[in-house]
Amino acid sequence: MIDFRNVSKRFGQVIALDNISIDFSQGSITGLFGPNGAGKSTIMKLIAGINYPDQGEVRVDGEFPRAKRQSIAYLPEIDHLYPWWTLKQAANFISTFYQDWDELRYKDLIPFLNLEEQMIMGKISKGQRAKCKLLLVLARKAPYLLLDEPFSGIDLLTREEIADALLRGYREGEQAIIISTHEIDEIESLVDKVAFIDQGRIQLYGDAEQLRMERNKSLVEIMKEVFRYGNQQI
Amino acid sequence: MDFDNSQPIYMQIIDEYKKSIIRNELKKGDKIPSQREYAQMVRVNPNTVQRAYREMESMNMVETLRGQGTFIIAGEQMRELMVKDMAGKLMKHFISEMRSLGYEDMVTLDMLKHEFESLEDE
Fold it and tell me: With 50 as the cut, is the pLDDT of residue A152 above it?
């Protein structure tokens, strides 16, 4: 389980996270929804152990995130793969770092995502690069999978391929997936837990099906409602 | 399959299976996809599919046999109940929509009669 207790984080004058408490457990796919700058990426970075909280605690299975790096597969929003790498070279690099690398799954997902091992990162399209990034995290058997904006700026067909690969690789009950995005449409039916985040706070958290039942609204509609209401309060 | 995202998805999955049974596309003894296959087919969270399957099991619509898969066990009697239930829901929906348009129930009835007559003329 990933556990946030009263976590705050500032970057200079900017409050990125304002006293948030939330937990993510194995067996669920959680959507972190909110506009750009809401604090979604900061939550991801705290779990990945790249940033530290100013106040409060972040724990992964009861330990500091940095100690649990082998348990966390993180897909950052930025392009982190060297442009001169082929997919195969990137995979070789990552597989030496992580003991949970699963060569069979890697080989299975390459044709599934319409990728080739000889593709050069700097020479392929943005959509193909996004799929390469996804492949490299899905090829690990990590219990925690963090996907920061995996869909941004990517065409619809590629988004669907990404969603399909995600379900194909998903290990029910053993894995917690956290996906941050400001484009909910694509993954509306993929998530079972949702946290709507705005201005560094969790404005609403709940079970996706429960929310639909209570409000007769889609998650997209609920997000609009939550953020409009949230903004009126200021 | 396209879901209406403003309604719980597990209920829509159950409704889809009910409709298949009503239309006789699925019959007692037929095997349906495993939860995992179904989740990938329709691109839905596996927990949501699990919820739908569990519910269908408790309704005695389907049964899951260890190592063999999930099968339809609803027979003709249950199919008839489903037809009635589905018809009832359609009627309720129709009535509430007509009322929300401001029609008196008697007027709606009259309109229905006219509509049936004009359908017969065609």
Answer: yes
